[in-house]
Queue: 4 jobs
Job 1
Amino acid sequence: MGPQAGGGEEVTSERPAAGPAGATAPLVELDGVAKHYGNVKALDGVSMTVRAGEITCVLGDNGAGKSTLIKIIAGLHRHDAGTLRIAGEETVLGSPRQALDRGIATVYQDLAVVPLMPVWRNFFLGSEPTRGRGPFRRLDVAAMRETTHAALLRMGIDLRDVDQPIGTLSGGERQCVAIARAVHFGAKVLVLDEPTAALGVKQSGVVLKYVAAARDAGLGVVLITHNPHHAYLVGDHFVLLKRGVMAGSHAKEQISLEELTRQMAGGSELEQLSHELARAQGPGLPDGRGDGHREGPAAG
Ligand SMILES: Nc1ncnc2c1ncn2[C@@H]1O[C@H](COP(=O)(O)OP(=O)(O)OP(=O)(O)O)[C@@H](O)[C@H]1O
Ligand SMILES: [Mg+2]
């Protein structure tokens, strides 16, 4: 990325204006971020960069601090050490509304949808366009239906009927609607907490396709997952968390899927486990040597 010659013309209309820090400031930067819940240290010294047109994956086991991390970016929790910069500017987000106003849209795993309301109604929830004024003001239903259909179609989602209750869609389809919604309402950063966790292989693939489509639309995407295969399919950068601290940060070209999987699983811990399982299931256990000498503490 060479510096742009600052001659009078604008670079591209899609690039977010990044203020005086320059057009190259990442959308979001975390630097040495920490978060405690009482005396539980959920995060410590975590750093991460989110860039436009890239997917940053946050990987880690249960309790690693993934959700805590995105709640800080989403404005749900405040970090208590380190810095959060949005478009180059140091910030402490006070509420999800503030995050949204800065262009950060978060799709939680338990999607905030109203199951009995039609798809289009959920698509516009909280941002409904109206017609008329004063006592004649009413929802512009036709426009909402049409826009929802068009916005979904632009993402390649051809929903037969936007009037069906969103509760009748599959989990994967609901995730896709949520992604299309964030793109439609102009989010710059899309944060997804385990969007494929409850999905089968095929539906996971579909959701990942729309995650990639959001990236191609120029958004910076943060994808939380504990599935290295899903991460590796779409990710540009991988941040590994382990019990609240960073266990690695790699660009895709620096790491293979095998190595990512190994690091995720905690290489030696997995070897120890396979050792133990092999022993437990061993054919016949000839000389009764069950668990002779175990080496080293099982660290937590
Ligand atoms: N509101 C809270 N109050 C107290 N402790 C919390 C709270 N939220 C999370 N924790 C603790 O912080 C640590 C990190 O939790 P977090 O939910 O961020 O993990 P995670 O990586 O998202 O896990 P999972 O894969 O299970 O979703 C855990 O030890 C958890 O018990
Ligand atoms: Mg979580």
Note: The longest strand covers residues 40-50.
Job 2
Amino acid sequence: MGISFDGGFIVNKPYKLYSLEDYFKGINSEDDDLFNHFNFILNQNMIVGEEIKAYFKKMASILGDYDGGMSIFTNYVHKEKRKVSSLLNCNNLEAIVQLFEDTKIISVETNKINNYVNGLKTVGDKRQYYLMQSGESIFTELAKVVPFNDIDLVKFSKNFGLPTGYKESGLFETERSIEFISSPTLYIHLRLLEFKDIFNLFVAIKTKEPNLIKLLFSNHGDRKGIDIPENEFDEEEMYIALKSDIATELNHILINYGNNSFEFNVQTGKFSETEKIEDLFHFGYIQMKQSLINETELRKCEYCGHYFEVNHGKQRFCPPLPFRKRSSCETAYNREKNK
Ligand SMILES: [Zn+2]
């Protein structure tokens, strides 16, 4: 079964970066407590169902696998390395929240946010695209965003909306569009890091690049606590092991997002069963899964050098972004060529 989600996704504008203080002042919230706010976001998106402890431990090990990963992270949260590793390894949300103290909130302009009985709502300029129609590049675009780079994150959000965060809460469950109003940037960056980690596995499987296969095989073995003697396995064996790893990991994440939902659709007046999409990461993971099942081809864009999923044989560039007819990479490529 493919993806049958028929809801829209809202792009609000502009998205801005706020200090915690300015954000809470801006939305005039009585609930100006970072712990409550963060806890609410976690509950809304439940960090893929895992316990907090397991989640942050996993993040620490992913960070450890990337060159300079830990120092990028410690710089981002403005804390000392020792403090950071003790926070990542504690099993206490109130302590973990300290990691967020000196980071930012990415949000719709706060003067466009109103408080309602059941949460926050936005007013003003917004557009909607449909994931099934204009979202084909979401998973490859998410993989382009560099974790812990706020400028990259703002750029992505301008085109696709916030990938996750504080969800606009409709009064009724009949609204089929998803809108994220704000999020601590650190929360999105952690989700990006996790996404990129699986996406690397995905690229290794699609491209069969020997060095990448070797590297990931050893990293994933370490994470499972298996000490793998060098040269014990040949390339094909490692390749098969990684394929099995990605199936396990994707399955684990997708199961935690929950099942399809059977519902009465007020708009169509019919009962239906749809995939309930929680956020863009959820959608991106489903796309990765579908691409593995359907054995679609991954190709490097001739302009930006990132991978995209091929939809037709001659495609040389990343697909068009939502609300655009042509590929931005193709347009930029032609412009530079004709200079
Ligand atoms: Zn491109």
Note: The mean pLDDT is 86.
Job 3
Amino acid sequence: MISMARPDGSASKIVRIFKNSASYLIYLAECEGELSVCKIAHLDGAKLDREIARIEALREAYPGFKRRLVGVERAGKISTGEFTGKHYYLSKYVRGETFSHWIQSPTTEIGSLRNAYNTILPVLFDLSSTQRPCEGSWKTYIATMLREELSKLESKPMLRRILSSGEIVVDGTALRSLPKLVDELLSNDVVMTIDTLGRALSDLGHWNFHGDNVVVPDILNPSEFKVIDPDVSIVTSDPLFGVARFLYTYSHDTADYRQYYIHTRAYVPFEAGRFEFEIRRLWPEVVARNYEDLFGRSLQLGLPGIKGVPDELAQVRLAYCYLCCLIRGVNANFEDRLEFEGDRLDLIRNKSIFLLLAATKFANALARNMSGSIS
Ligand SMILES: Nc1ncnc2c1ncn2[C@@H]1O[C@H](COP(=O)(O)OP(=O)(O)OP(=O)(O)O)[C@@H](O)[C@H]1O
Ligand SMILES: [Mg+2]
């Protein structure tokens, strides 16, 4: 363990570094026998301040969040050393592992994971449904979110080429590309109906329950789980958006932990490479099986029959939110660099392309469902 000054100047021991991304340094420190997590913003202190304000507002407004969402113990600006002037906050450490880490542990039994999933999902529904409703048209909200995200994708030449190609092939299946599908999905009558059935938006929410933001102290006793890290880039959204983020865990983690390659000749120089992609997942077999078992079905089938979804319209809202999660993921994780594996020019790694392919697959499955029984 390394000793170093704590953000407030007192001595602390660094126990574990959780993450050091371009945006944040997040580590676990022990000070006078207490364990706290310190999150320091490398670049955007104002955004970290919004995160602190959102955590406090959620805990104040909703008893469910007071119990589940980890609070802020101390916050401010660092006054000494290399990080002087950077914004930080400390929160109480939740012993245990994130749900994603439990899934990734080869010793976790699938039965315990299923039980945890079936315990966590209804609680996330409850937390979401208690988020206060606000005025506004769901149709306008979902159309704005999908079109804005899509136009961000189209502003990136590498992604625009895929989007404008009309059709791509993923894992041997021909798929229509996103822009046409989004138009079709937004013009479905069901989208109109949702507005006639009461409020489907909230202006105070968490929006970010993916598996690495759900901390489970003991996988055999999952009801004690906590949540962290609200998404402050979203102010108003469908309350089901946070639940959709939970269902998005498999794609999120595969991208975030870099557990994939994409086999394609699309980027081989001097070749008119066709947009044919084959996704290879790199998770150890048992881990892939865990993720598939918990989340795979929703991804392939356009989310029908998720346990606990109250009705068919909630199902539709959830599915559209899920598509937003995937498309937002492409933008949030945008990488303009293609990483080639070894000496292979036909084996690439790029988070934005990986998530764009997942979004395209899902949008095709959803469009098929929507043109079938629901519409
Ligand atoms: N209070 C806590 N208790 C236990 N683990 C925590 C806690 N806070 C953070 N962690 C660990 O640190 C990781 C990263 O923290 P966090 O989710 O706040 O950052 P992030 O996902 O990088 O942030 P952002 O999504 O805002 O870019 C979590 O996935 C979790 O493993
Ligand atoms: Mg997080």
Note: Residues 18-19, 21, 23-24, 26, 37, 39, 70, 91, 93-94, 98, 212-213, 215, 228-229 surround adenosine-5'-triphosphate (ligand 1) (CB under 6 Å).
Job 4
Amino acid sequence: MAVIIEPWRIPPEGSHIEGEEPCDILDLGDTKEITPSGPIRYSLDLNLVTHELLVRGAVSAKVRFTCSRCADRFVRSVKDDAFFCERPVENLHATVDLTDELRETIILAFANFPVCRETCRGLCPVCGVNLNKESCGCKALEEEHWSAFSGLDRIEVKNGGTQTEKVKKSNPDAQKKRK
Ligand SMILES: [Zn+2]
Ligand SMILES: [Zn+2]
């Protein structure tokens, strides 16, 4: 499928088209992180000015993403309300294919949705549970660990790559304490 414009049908005052195309025009290849989840919708104003076709309007699509923090799959509507492109029209009776432009504008909009939600808590770095769905003992251990080392700079501990190791080491003790 494709979005094809027939310039000879556009009246001097311009025209408006709306519609949807199956999501397979996105053609995302083999990636499993991002997959289309519905048709691409478009609502476009067309104007023919001398030898240029001017197209502006809105393009949207529902897309399924994989959250970069918690690896959950989620569906978002991706949208560009300020879609604009211009294409030379040498021959008024030749069709203009806008499929590539619509595909690109949707793909460019992907970058805005790396996580399922702003407050996504991600996966526990120690035991791997999804912290949005369940809690694990590791967080409590971390806090215990921090209060024990309260004289240290927390940020340094967090980014230093030693956090996981230290928490793991303190694991057996803490478990004993709980029993
Ligand atoms: Zn998430
Ligand atoms: Zn955990």
Note: Residues 4-112 form one domain.
